[in-house]
Amino acid sequence: MKRTSSFDVLTDRRNTGSCKWEAYAHLTKDGDCIPLTVADMELPIAEPIKAALVAAAQHGICGYTQVDELYLNALTGFMKRHHGLEITEKNLICTSGIVPAFGIVLRALTQKGDGIIVQPPVYTPFFDAIRANERVILENPLLFDGKEYRMDYAGLEELCKSGAKLLMLCSPHNPVGRVWTREELQMTGDICKKYGVVILCDEIHNDMALESTHTALATLPGMKDIVITCTAMSKTFNLAGLMLSNIFIFNEDMYKKVDRQLGLDGSHCIPYFGRAASIAAFSECDGWIEELKDYLRGNFELCYNYIAENMPNLECIRAEGTYLLWVNCKKLGLSDKELLKRFEEEKVPVNPGTMFGTGGSGFVRINVAMPRESLMIALEKIKKAVNVK
Predict the structure, then answer these.
(1) Same domain, 79 and 127
(2) Is 17 within a domain?
(3) Number of structural domains found in the chain
(4) Of the candidates 331, 374, 371, 359, which has an alpha carbon nearest to the alpha carbon of residue 173?
(5) Which of 42, 115, 290, 328 gets the highest tally of CB atoms within 10 A of its CB?
(6) What is the pLDDT of residues 209-256, one digit of tens each?
(7) The domain that contains 321 carries what CATH number?
(8) Cα 160 to chain centroid, rounded
(9) Would residue 57 count as lying in a domain?
């Protein structure tokens, strides 16, 4: 396959401590395994970010670091340009990741035994955070018509009415790929506001809206007072290993409680290299984001076309956003265990749908953020896996 893009560069991530690759070290030693699991990209970071990291290393001192004017200006400018969200230092709390932020917010704003709403199938750490903090999972499963997912507003209202304290909302949604419309988000927010339910909104994939426009929930009328918005540079710029997320809270009372909990749980410092990378990412990489999104669109189209032509028993749920493909494998008639085994035998491990909770059985999640040459090889392996008689 001819390489025509900087994203076509193949990088060997074995022996780098990669969570994705180390998990399958027993399969990758021969170099012919392609893990399609953990949601980071097999694509190189933007050159301005690389240069900023090199310069930070050459400076020679990696001391305790905090949010400063350069970081704040870069972040606020980016959020206003891309998402219409105006923030100040008084709205910003930085954490070592969005997943740690889940626990911090739950401990700050809810009590043990409180009901927390989730909309499965959904990002696994939602469930983990609720259980770990001894809250109660209240399920409001997404409705699926065989092609598209939508929210169950009647079910959501019943849970809110019954005393739920907080909704964990995934927007854009992982794993089903929905980019919720303004109308959908407004309706969700209005229901929660009516019953005093806080919304913890995971918008980590906010820049990865590929077929429609992402709406930051906090920009909608009446929403700022009940919404906590979780964002990070990790998905957009492939910088998950730098451990830095930005949490926006506009309600002063909620901000104080979450900020206090952050102090109890850890530190208000930010990673030295995370700061350097963020400033470059937020200030110099707007064009790179558009190039990345075009490349990802091409990868999705390759998947849709190849699977439709070669694997009639698989059905792709078209992704409006993220770089994660949600695939319905139910026509294969396999158990979830057997399905996963088939993929691993062909050395293309995937995420089983069951890890995302109710509605996930019979599905798999495939990470398509990789050089197209690797993706083509992975698809050929998947074809062998699912066409075994």
Answers:
(1) yes
(2) yes
(3) 2
(4) 359
(5) 42
(6) 999 999 999 999 999 999 999 999 999 999 999 999 999 999 999 999
(7) 3.90.1150.10
(8) 25
(9) yes
